[in-house]
Amino acid sequence: MAEHGNYWGELRANWRVLLAASLGMAVGLSLFSYVTSIFAPFLIKEFHWERAQFARIGYTMLAAILVSPLAGHLVDRFGVRAMALTGVILLPMVLLAYTQQSGSFGYYFACSAGMMIVGSLTGPVTYTRLIIERFSRARGLALTIVMSAPAISGIVFPRLITSFIEANGWKLGYAGLAGMTLVLGLIAIALFPAGSGLAPVRKTMALGAPAGAFREVLKTPVFWILFIAVFLTTIHTPLHGSQFVLLLKEQGLTSLTAATMLMVYSAGTVIGRIVCGLALDHYPARIVAAISMSLPAAGLALLASPFDSLGVVGLSVLLVGITVGAEGDLLSFLVGRYFRIEIFSRALALCYCGLFAASISGVALVSYMLKTYDSYAPFLWIAAGCVVVGSFLFLRLPAATPPAKGEA
Fold first, then answer.
1. Distance between CA atoms of 20 and 145, rounded to whole angstroms?
2. pLDDT tens by residue, 267-302
3. Residue range of the domain that includes 294
């Protein structure tokens, strides 16, 4: 009973950390994986861009690969509070820059790259460090709560944003998002408890020597297992980013029905995060990872099949959403398990580079397939195969590890 009490007591004792990190994530970079594709049909229609051309927007993940390790170093070095505040101020500026586009795809691409750069300070690399610092027994559930916040935003906002854009235009849509992210982001930072999110005491080599810290991560076999497994199981990422609504319209859905499917997808991410987070606190993490990350294979295969009924599409979207939800819990949890807290954000940033590299590769592949076959189906079959292989790699992780130095 004491252990059970400690589990829930840890959540009660750190409720402000949970609330601050959750709200920050809800209006940070992760939110835009749910809302970016909403703008796609309106922009393509107005500027006469091709779907294959628009698919190349995923190449902005290259910017994330370049800046994510730097963001991780800055968070480890200067603390969550300072870096989150920087991101909260800069991200709305990028959203306002979108409103100035007049048809140049290059300009749109530059804005999207800018979002990836400044948004890297408003994502998991920043906010989940608070959870790793404060939680040990209920870490999986705490990560679930924080990482579910963008999905909850994804349930609430898609239909509202779609209806707003249809009535007022996409420019006001971007302006409204800018105002919302700024106000709610500042509230999140104000909620940080005293002493939370500050720069750590600089006692270790890792804080003053980023090259040494990165070498420590890169020479660890666990990192490469995580990197490759994440790459293979997330190569389908472009489909639920800028391409999501376009993919669903190929299934015969209208814009509003597609927006409803975004809600189903978001609900799936919430389910995935809750179930995965609870499982991580009670079952072997490598088993939980292998099962959780295998689910999209079925969903992607169903979307590639000729079965286009609303129920089949809904099930497919739900399965993909469940894994995307689990993915956020898994990466932060596994990095917190296998790496020291002093280099947590750097290790997590490097693992996320596997996801970003998968997105870039997926964009190249889906763009080629659309140009060659004018259909998403070939890409869907390839992605399903990659997911099967990658999910089994998680079983190669060590069954148990000693507590990391500095772990709460």
1. 11
2. 887 788 888 888 999 889 899 999 989 988 888 888
3. 8-199+206-396
